[in-house]
Write a structure and sequence with these properties.
Elements: E1 10-13, E2 23-27, H1 38-47, H2 49-56, E3 66-70, E4 78-82, H3 93-110, E5 115-118, H4 130-147, E6 154-159, H5 162-171
Parallel strand pairs: 1-6, 2-4, 2-5, 5-6
Antiparallel strand pairs: 3-4
Length: 175
């Protein structure tokens, strides 16, 4: 019988733009301007034109980094924008993907935010294999939580469908 790791991560299937949390994370592109699809377009559309205006002032974002804006018309108070790697199989991509989660959580802590919802960064239109991305996500969040044991933060990973939920459940040892 194997030991199951207990992660402090909630999983749900749904629309990240509807969550009343302190911050939702946007899987953004390097310009931080509205993308052509996926969670980035959904967040920009739901937040309204003020988000695009605020993003213009941030001068973009490099892969693995994170920047914060207001939530605008969303129920979330803030949006943390992070740029995941476009998957090519390059050696540095797992580290860059993990940095998206680490830097987003650090930014949440710096801004005294206590609930954060992540999408499956890079696992959609950026082509990262879902199983590998989920493993990286779970390990990165778990490592951050262990490094910050006294910081109380609710972490949610929002999956876009039941299939992705099962991938994350598998990564967490729940299947």
């Amino acid at each position: 019988m194997s030991q199951i790791q207990e992660y402090q991560i909630e999983l749900l299937v749904g629309d990240i733009t509807t969550l009343p949390v302190d911050a939702i994370v946007n899987a953004a592109n390097k310009t931080l301007l509205a993308g052509l699809g996926g969670v980035d377009l959904a967040i920009h559309s739901a937040a309204g034109p003020g988000l695009q205006t605020e993003c213009w002032t941030l001068n973009g974002c490099e892969t693995g980094e994170a920047k914060i804006t207001g939530g605008h018309a969303l129920p979330a108070k803030h949006i943390i924008h992070t740029v995941g790697p476009v998957y090519t199989g390059a050696e540095e991509e797992p580290l860059l993907l993990a940095e998206c989660y680490r830097n987003s959580l650090n930014l949440a802590k710096e801004n005294d935010l206590h609930s954060i919802a992540f999408p499956a960064i890079s696992a959609g239109s950026y082509g990262y294999p879902a199983e590998e991305a989920a493993q990286i996500t779970v390990k990165a969040i778990d490592a951050w939580q262990k490094e910050n044991p006294s910081y109380d933060i609710r972490v949610i990973v929002v999956c876009f469908d039941e299939e992705m939920l099962q991938v994350y459940r598998q990564a967490m040892g729940l299947l």
